[in-house]
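Our preliminary data section would be incomplete without showing what the modeling component actually yields. Below, a chain of 113 amino acids is followed by its predicted structure, encoded as C-alpha coordinates that our downstream tools consume directly.
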Amino acid sequence: MKRTPEPYLWLLFSGGGVVAALVLPVLVLLFGVLMPLGVVDWPAVDHLRALLDGVVVRAALLVVVTLCLFHAAHRIRFTSEELFGIAKFDRALAVICYGAALAGVAAALWVMA
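Predicted structure:
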Protein backbone atom coordinates (compact mmCIF):
# COMPACT_ATOMS: atom_id res chain seq x y z
CA MET A 1 0.00 0.00 0.00
CA LYS A 2 1.39 3.37 -1.07
CA ARG A 3 1.90 5.94 1.69
CA THR A 4 0.52 9.40 1.05
CA PRO A 5 0.55 12.65 3.04
CA GLU A 6 -3.14 13.18 2.22
CA PRO A 7 -4.51 12.32 5.72
CA TYR A 8 -2.22 14.88 7.31
CA LEU A 9 -3.26 17.52 4.80
CA TRP A 10 -6.92 16.78 5.54
CA LEU A 11 -6.11 17.12 9.26
CA LEU A 12 -4.59 20.56 8.66
CA PHE A 13 -7.62 21.44 6.51
CA SER A 14 -10.11 20.51 9.21
CA GLY A 15 -8.11 22.21 11.95
CA GLY A 16 -7.87 25.33 9.82
CA GLY A 17 -11.61 25.23 9.24
CA VAL A 18 -12.28 25.18 12.96
CA VAL A 19 -9.87 28.05 13.59
CA ALA A 20 -11.26 30.03 10.65
CA ALA A 21 -14.80 29.54 11.98
CA LEU A 22 -14.13 30.28 15.65
CA VAL A 23 -11.13 32.59 15.98
CA LEU A 24 -11.05 34.74 12.85
CA PRO A 25 -14.60 36.14 13.20
CA VAL A 26 -13.78 37.36 16.70
CA LEU A 27 -10.59 39.07 15.51
CA VAL A 28 -12.41 40.66 12.55
CA LEU A 29 -15.24 41.81 14.80
CA LEU A 30 -12.85 43.37 17.32
CA PHE A 31 -10.21 44.90 15.07
CA GLY A 32 -12.32 45.47 11.97
CA VAL A 33 -15.67 46.66 13.36
CA LEU A 34 -15.90 47.44 17.07
CA MET A 35 -12.61 49.29 17.53
CA PRO A 36 -12.88 51.46 14.38
CA LEU A 37 -16.46 52.39 15.34
CA GLY A 38 -15.35 53.36 18.86
CA VAL A 39 -17.51 50.76 20.61
CA VAL A 40 -14.40 49.24 22.18
CA ASP A 41 -11.30 51.28 22.94
CA TRP A 42 -8.12 50.51 21.05
CA PRO A 43 -5.50 48.87 23.27
CA ALA A 44 -2.40 50.88 24.00
CA VAL A 45 0.65 50.09 21.88
CA ASP A 46 2.66 49.23 24.98
CA HIS A 47 -0.03 46.79 26.07
CA LEU A 48 -0.05 45.03 22.68
CA ARG A 49 3.75 44.85 22.60
CA ALA A 50 3.80 43.38 26.11
CA LEU A 51 1.16 40.87 25.07
CA LEU A 52 3.12 39.83 21.98
CA ASP A 53 6.32 39.42 23.98
CA GLY A 54 4.90 36.25 25.51
CA VAL A 55 5.91 32.97 23.90
CA VAL A 56 2.46 31.45 24.39
CA VAL A 57 0.69 34.27 22.54
CA ARG A 58 3.17 34.14 19.66
CA ALA A 59 2.80 30.37 19.43
CA ALA A 60 -1.00 30.67 19.43
CA LEU A 61 -0.89 33.27 16.66
CA LEU A 62 1.47 31.09 14.66
CA VAL A 63 -0.90 28.13 15.03
CA VAL A 64 -3.85 30.26 13.89
CA VAL A 65 -1.93 31.55 10.86
CA THR A 66 -0.58 28.10 9.96
CA LEU A 67 -3.92 26.34 10.15
CA CYS A 68 -5.73 29.07 8.22
CA LEU A 69 -3.09 29.05 5.46
CA PHE A 70 -3.25 25.27 5.07
CA HIS A 71 -7.05 25.39 5.11
CA ALA A 72 -6.99 27.96 2.31
CA ALA A 73 -4.39 25.98 0.34
CA HIS A 74 -6.49 22.84 0.52
CA ARG A 75 -9.64 24.67 -0.58
CA ILE A 76 -7.83 26.38 -3.46
CA ARG A 77 -6.30 23.10 -4.60
CA PHE A 78 -9.50 21.08 -4.77
CA THR A 79 -11.69 23.95 -5.95
CA SER A 80 -9.28 24.64 -8.81
CA GLU A 81 -9.24 20.98 -9.79
CA GLU A 82 -13.04 20.78 -9.87
CA LEU A 83 -13.78 24.20 -11.31
CA PHE A 84 -11.16 24.23 -14.06
CA GLY A 85 -10.99 20.47 -14.66
CA ILE A 86 -7.25 20.30 -14.07
CA ALA A 87 -7.17 17.16 -11.93
CA LYS A 88 -4.41 15.77 -14.13
CA PHE A 89 -2.11 18.43 -12.66
CA ASP A 90 -2.92 17.41 -9.09
CA ARG A 91 0.66 16.92 -7.95
CA ALA A 92 1.89 20.24 -9.37
CA LEU A 93 -1.12 22.07 -7.97
CA ALA A 94 -0.56 20.48 -4.56
CA VAL A 95 3.08 21.56 -4.56
CA ILE A 96 2.12 25.11 -5.52
CA CYS A 97 -0.71 25.43 -2.97
CA TYR A 98 1.00 23.81 -0.01
CA GLY A 99 4.31 25.45 -0.93
CA ALA A 100 2.60 28.83 -0.80
CA ALA A 101 1.14 27.90 2.60
CA LEU A 102 4.60 26.95 3.85
CA ALA A 103 5.99 30.23 2.50
CA GLY A 104 3.28 32.07 4.40
CA VAL A 105 4.16 30.21 7.58
CA ALA A 106 7.83 31.08 7.06
CA ALA A 107 6.87 34.74 6.58
CA ALA A 108 4.80 34.63 9.77
CA LEU A 109 7.76 33.15 11.64
CA TRP A 110 10.01 35.88 10.26
CA VAL A 111 7.58 38.64 11.26
CA MET A 112 7.15 37.22 14.78
CA ALA A 113 10.88 36.85 15.35
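DSSP finds five helices and no strands in the chain. The radius of gyration is 17 Å. Preliminary results of this kind motivate Aim 1 of the renewal.
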